[in-house]
Amino acid sequence: MAKAQQITERVGTLDPQAWLAEVLRVRFEEVIKYRDAALDPAQIDGVHDMRVSIRRLRSVIRDFAEITNKFPLKNLRKRLKRLADSLGAVRDPDVFLSTLEKLSAHARDDEIRTGIAIIVLEYREKRASALQELEKEMSPERIADLESRFDAVLAESLKQRGLYQVGRVEDAAERIISKCRKEFLEQGEAIYYPHSMQRLHRMRIAGKHLRYAVELFADVLGPESEALAEETKKMQGYLGDVHDCDVWTTQLRERSVGKKQNGQGNGERKAAIWLMSEFQRGRTKAYRKALALWTKWEYEAFWQNQIPVK
Prior knowledge:
76% helix
């Protein structure tokens, strides 16, 4: 995955409004630059990179909406989410297909391997269909319209000199990161509900918001920010694996029940049941890592201490 572009202007050289404008321009340009790679079938990482860049941009817009009186860019979040959803419809089958192919190599039953091959073919067709929709969503005309709208609302924001409720970037950092940390710790109770798919997913999303905020204000936080972001990234990874296994198990359960009722596809159903077992094994492993990391944080009071702002 490509790393986020660094902001060229240091915090101390700009007022909050000018600094945010620089951040938004860099993050938006980062989204646009991945367009060609995202539409290239040979570069599957391009879809992921563009999707993540949109998450970073939407996170900035979300966070700064908390410290402004009026923020016109909020109106772009829905448009960006629609684009992110289209990218997700392509990316999600990519991850699932990669996992299926790895597991198929370990299956000893020929009938299971044959059933997996049928499932793989179905998801490849879903991906191809999703890619066609993505091509429409990212047509030159729609991208040009998105760029035009972004420029217009950014210009409108910059005209509002009384926009901010804070006078320094450091103040914005403390307020935004404190809010994100509070939300993450509140959602952290989900770690003690291992079978709650939605609660664990919300915890993961809150962790993403915190991590992106920490990365955004790295220049304010200093060297400590790298460790903070890295620890949150670990938890995201573990909870992401849990969520993937939950989603895939749900899809395969619906598939196997349907095949049983129709009396068809015994090989596919056998493969689906075997895969569900493998996903639950993987989910348990990922959950135990997440629980161990959270317990470690609690013993060390890792997130309880005030995040330092220079």
